[in-house]
Design goal:
Low-confidence stretches: none
Number of helices: 8
Radius of gyration: 22 Å
Shape: flat
Number of strands: 2
Mean pLDDT: 89
Structural class: mainly alpha
Length: 244
């Protein structure tokens, strides 16, 4: 029987198992977070030096309990408005990319409209900095600090998210544990690399900040979580094994 036609029965043991896994992973994450922050700080510091970024490492301390605290690392950058060369070169690229979307084949229609949406965001940023750029209220420092903090919060939410949407299904405990470890580990490794890439772009100009935030910021992490969840749901469950 197809899984869409199968009757789902939530047993009390499933709820107990899901709750225990959520508590286990949440506790392990909270305990390991200070060490992870020190590792991220090391990677960011060395990465900025290797890439030659004109940035320093900022640290913002957060307390979970009086005994458990961590310092969120992030690059501190100077907010540089777009100079005429950056503005015009970006505008030309946006216009050429938009024109190219008209030559996409029919099967690439979703990609075409997604690219147009991204280009529209960048085009609006160009117009903003053309007319009222001097009053831009955001700085790379606050953006970077917020992005790292949001990423940490999102990773912290994965056990609860999987507890509500994955642990309740009839998969083995081993598969539930493996999927959670893979998702949280992947995002933990992705965090400093993603931040360094954004710092490289923002060092050129803050005109790229809106598109980095709206499209290439936290939404990328959400897509990664959805990809892991979809992959995990495609695994053979115990119910399918029993029915076979």
């Amino acid at each position: 029987m197809h899984r869409a036609l199968a009757r789902f029965v939530l047993e009390p043991l499933d709820l107990v198992t899901a709750a225990l896994l959520v508590l286990m992973f949440s506790f392990a994450w909270i305990v390991s977070l200070p060490r992870l922050c020190r590792l991220w700080a090391y990677v960011l510091g060395n990465g900025m030096a290797i890439l030659g970024l004109h940035a320093t490492l900022g640290l913002t301390e957060h307390h979970i309990t009086p005994y458990i605290y961590f310092s969120v690392p992030y690059p501190r950058l100077e907010g540089i408005p777009p100079d005429p060369r950056t503005w015009w070169s970006t505008a030309v690229v946006v216009c050429l990319a938009y024109a190219a979307t008209y030559f996409f084949p029919g099967r690439a229609t979703p990609v075409k409209y997604l690219l147009r949406a991204v280009l529209l965001i960048q085009f609006s940023a160009l117009l903003y900095f053309l007319f009222v750029g001097a009053s831009y209220p955001h700085t790379p420092d606050s953006y970077m600090e917020g992005l790292v903090s949001y990423k940490i919060a999102l990773i912290s939410f994965i056990p609860a998210l999987f507890g509500l949407t994955y642990y309740i299904f009839i998969f083995s405990a081993f598969k539930k544990i493996v999927l959670t470890i893979l998702a949280m580990s992947h995002l933990s490794v992705f965090l400093p690399l993603h931040i360094l890439l954004q710092a490289m772009i923002l060092e050129k100009s803050v005109v790229f900040m809106p598109v980095l935030y709206i499209v290439f910021g936290l939404p990328l992490d959400i897509v990664i979580i959805l990809a892991f969840y979809s992959w995990g749901m495609s695994w053979v469950s115990n119910a399918n094994i029993q029915s076979a």
